[in-house]
Write a structure and sequence with these properties.
The complex is a heterodimer of chains A (about 70) and B (about 140). With about 70 residues, chain A is mainly α. Chain A has six helices and no strands. The longest helix of chain A is centred in the middle third of the chain and has 11 residues, at about 40-50. Chain A is globular. The model of chain A has no long low-confidence stretch (mean pLDDT about 90). With about 140 residues, chain B is mostly helical. Chain B contains five helices and no strands. The chains are: A mainly alpha (about 70), B mainly alpha (about 140). The interface of A and B includes residues 25, 35, 38, 40 and 41 of A.
Chain lengths: ~70, ~140
Amino acid sequence: MENRLRVLRAERNWSQQDLAERLEVSRQSVNAIETGKYDPSLPLAFRIAELFDRPIEDIFVSPSRRSSKAI
Amino acid sequence: MVRSPAWKRYNWRVIWLSLLYGAFLLPAVYGFKHQLVPHSVAWLVAILPALPIIGVFVAIGRYLVEEQDEYVRMLMVRQTLWASGFALSVTTVWGFLENFGLVGHVEAYYISVLWFFGLAIGAIVNKLTVGAAAWGC
């Protein structure tokens, strides 16, 4: 799933490891989410949103909205 | 390689189970070879080496329950699916080949060996497709 995690992380000068520690997940998890190879569960998506103090849809792009835009 | 607390616990469990396997298997092989095993306990002595292997399956199950990182857990689930598919496919093909007299008999416990080999295949597939593996690569 497309997302703005890398941008939000860069704004705070956090490494993937920094973000992983704050989320209590592995660095591999952060990398997989950032690169769109893994879609986080809803609880983890909420944890990410709460950490950045933003709504989930500000961070993750809805696949259905993305496809409708493409049309 | 990811080394979560759950993964470390899993590793320790597998190490102990491996030691237990050796402790059960070697006396059993020696005992049966030299006809030292009384008939009354033959079944027990023969089954004992299987128990640590079953324990490894349980350890993998415990790991999946205890692993807190959902991405790493997903990787391990994928590996176990590859392992199961590989082991079942090979043994199914071998079964038909054996049934039609084209290959010799192989002991059933080799399905476990194939399954563990399948875990390594799953780790390689994970590495190639999502760029990471729970363990093994």
